[in-house]
Amino acid sequence: MDTLTFIVSLLYQYADTLALLLLAAIGLIVIFGMMGVINMANGEMMMIGAYITSFSYYAGIPTPLAVIFGGLGAGLVGIVIELLIIRRFYGQLLASLVATWGLSLIMSQGAYLLLGPLIKSVPTPFGSFGVGDLSFSYYRIFIFAMGLALVAAVWALFAFSRFGLHARATMEDPSMARALGVDVKRIYSLTFGLGTGLAGVAGGLLALTSTIGPFYGQTYTPQAFITVVVGGGAEIVSGLLASALSLGLVKTVVMNQVNILLGHVAMLVFALVVIRMMPSGISDWVERRRSQGRRA
Amino acid sequence: MLPLARLIDRALGPVNGPLETGRSPPFWLIFLGVVAVLVIAPSFLSRYELLNFSNFLTNIFLALGLCLIWGYAGILSLGQSAFLGLGGYAYGVVGINLIEAHGNTWLALLAGLGFPVLVAALLGWIMFYARLKGVYVAILMLVVTLLIETFLNQTAGQGWSIGLAHLGGNNGLGRFSGVIREPPSLTLGFSADAMMIFGGKTRAFYYLIVGLGVVSYLGLRALVNSRLGHVLVAIREDPDRTETLGYDVRRLQLGVFCLSALLASLSGILYVSWGNFITPNVFGVYYNILPVIWVAVAGRKSLTATVLGAVFLVWLSQKLAIQGDIAFVVLGFILLGGMMLLPEGVITGIGERIGRLFDRLGIGAATRGGRHGG
Amino acid sequence: MAAEPLLETRAVSKRFGGVQAVSEVSLKLAPGELRCIIGPNGAGKSTLFKLLLGSIAPDEGTIHFQGRDVTRLQPHERAHLGIGVKFQNLAVYNALTVRHNLLLPLRHQFGSREVEDEIARLLARLNLVGTEDRLVGSLAHGQKQWLAIGMALAMRPKLLLLDEPTAGMGTEESSATGALIQAVTAEGVGAIVVEHDMAFVRELKAPVTVLHYGRVFAEGSFAAIEAHEEVRRIYLGAARSERPRRLRNRQP
């Protein structure tokens, strides 16, 4: 393999890894960052997004629209879950975590009982291109771009919209926000729906690259959780980006040199080192280095 | 108060205390009755029923360990079965290698108990000394166990042997891997001609589990009602506050986490001794959600409820498993419904109501207002 | 220079992300001295409090307690040196009895015989006689606050750190708490009170340190601080709109 091919393939792998981390974690980290709740059914939300995408596609709906339907469907399911379940556990983080784990069990096993171990997968669009003697998929590059676009959209939503303003006020101090006339309960419902909707879109996008079954979303669980552990506790977007960029680099290098399993193990080891060295999170650490640099 | 009741109250001092449900004389009478039934059970259970019942009981230690860290110390681990699996694998691998040369499994037992505790100590040192928040500890443990599962599933190739033990990929250690060497049952004794072999079908195994179960249960009751137990509850309620009262919260969290890993590893060793096999499944999502279901649904703040819940729910899932794939959906509903309707646990809720009834009848008065611990 | 200070911070700084929470704060406290720390929301009061008790370590600067550098010591180590803490929230253990709450700090220092006398002494001092075997969850709000102060006192501290000791109390309870704090300092215990309620600060008649944007903005007697034009502007003005219980009067 010549140098150019090696570099292109490494960059391609990095982009691909980043896309997986961002898409697997974005819904989880939005809900966690805003509400402090870990949604253990995040993988099942991805599964729902993927299922709706597949069903829509085979009902003759164009692929992009099918993915959007997947996101909307998962978002609606999320809002219902918030109203029926999550609402009961405000302020009890471990209890909400356990309750959503039960939900995850019901949804994945329920889908297995009702719809069987596999549903029809959706073909990967766009075809491929070659560099040297290797071929790369355009769609993989497209979902990398979509991962970044979703992060940017979340950032814009929280930075500029009325919903974002109210959501940030709620996150800062719920009782203060309530006193200022924000409908805090509605914000929580919408935030949870936004998170599950993002997981649904992510599930739909990734569904075009793999087989789809009831436990499809669960395969992303370790990566999604590691991303949250490394990036959590900070501001949502910067935390997610810092976490995905660093974890992606670690995984890509190890995966390229050894194998994908060790890539995952390396991410875990990296996360443990980050926890031990920078208890307040990686983006806080980066921020501190930067401001010290400015002062020096 | 009757002198006898006072005597019993005195004798039960160390295990009786405000931090456990079930401390009235009627409770202890029932407890003695249950132990008596357990002791004579082999005489009326069929061979198959005894084998099956022994299997249920192996889970008790895993459940007690989770109850201790979650219910009393406030640390939730979603990957508690990792320690069960590591204990089982470590015991199995050492056992396969040494059983013929040594004729016993003492070293395997030591490895099975020691290895998970070492792993727990390392992870705990990282997590607790970094003052990691509870939700992170919970999900990090799940990540750890899922990665171990992925790793072990890849060990089917010939290269993956430790001495005589072949890891066997998703077939695990034991008869399904097509390798003749399977992990031995616990073989304990002090001379070659007086070895006790605790195979799953033996009464010896059953009595070993019942004995260990009773000792662990009473020992943990004494622990949670001791001075240390109060400190653990204080840490659960408010770790920052507890530090300013002069307690090294990180060290205590690490210690209790290691103890829970020890208990889980005991379940793992007994599981291997019972069936002479173990597969990477024990590291998977389902094996890890089960203990959480038992403890959450039964009542995480009570060791008694946890034991009863674990045995009942394991029995229930086996009954359901016969019906097909519906078992996990039902368990999911039990967990979700339990959390929503009786967040402190179903058995704890019922137990408290019975306790209040006894109080009203004046029966439980013997232990009220007594001074415990100290 | 007179006797060695009980507590001394030297140019202590702490940053969170891009925010400078505490900036080069230097304080000195003599044994038996009472000091109030005030400042608007976000002035760095609670960060300074955490730095003093040890739950976070400063980025720069040092903290000395009785001449010993305690900057890197953990809260439990500082507790054993004689720093007692009462947090702002109701930091008592609702699941345990009053007696067991008090036993947690007392057990470090007393055998089983003396501990009973010490509990009786504390209960009397805290007006909690007769509540001994009740679960703390069943106590009234003011009683819980007193128990929290009592647990800090049970450590036999040389320095008391109190974060809003009268939060949620009525006027009478507040005065009694003020009297208790003054009585304790009269026995030679140094005390730092982080406070939001200016009426209570006035009542304590103690020197005041004003924090603003993480820096020491002004220091002096309460009268001097109250008369300080700039302090009135930043603190008293801000406090009016930030006290949640005054939000009722907020104009739409």
Structural features, described:
The complex is a heterotrimer of chains A (296), B (374) and C (252). With 296 residues, chain A is mostly helical. Chain A has twelve helices and two strands; from the N terminus they run ααααββαααααααα. Chain A has helices at residues 3-35, 42-58, 63-84, 93-115, 138-160, 162-172, 174-179, 184-207, 221-231, 236-257, 260-277, 282-295; strands at residues 128-131, 134-137. In chain A, a hairpin with a 2-residue loop joins strand 1 and strand 2. In chain A, helix 2 packs across helix 8 (184-207) and helix 5 (138-160) crosses helix 6 (162-172). The radius of gyration of chain A is 19 Å and the shape is globular. With 374 residues, chain B is mostly helical. In chain B, 67% of the residues lie in helices and 4% in strands. Chain B contains 15 helices and six strands. Chain B is globular, with a radius of gyration of 21 Å. Residues 364-374 of chain B have low confidence and may be disordered. Mean pLDDT of chain C is 83; it is low at 238-252. Chain C has a six-stranded mixed sheet, sandwiched between helices. Chain C is of the alpha/beta class. In chain C, helix 3 (98-106) packs parallel to helix 5. Chains in contact: A-B, A-C, B-C. The A-B interface holds A 32, 36, 38, 85, 88-89, 92-95, 97-99, 101-106, 109-110, 112-113, 218, 221-222, 225-226, 228-229, 232-233, 261, 264-265, 268, 271-272, 275-276, 279 and B 70, 76, 78, 123, 126-127, 129-136, 138-140, 142-144, 146-147, 150-151, 154, 285, 289, 292-293, 296, 325-326, 328-329, 331-336, 339-340, 343.
Q: How would you briefly describe this protein structure?
A:
Chain B is mainly α. Helices cover 67% and strands 4% of the residues of chain B.
List keywords for this structure.
heterotrimer, A: 296 residues, mainly alpha, two-stranded antiparallel ribbon, 2 strands, 76% helix, B: 374 residues, ABC transporter involved in vitamin B12 uptake, BtuC, two-stranded antiparallel sheet, 15 helices, 6 strands, globular, disordered C terminus
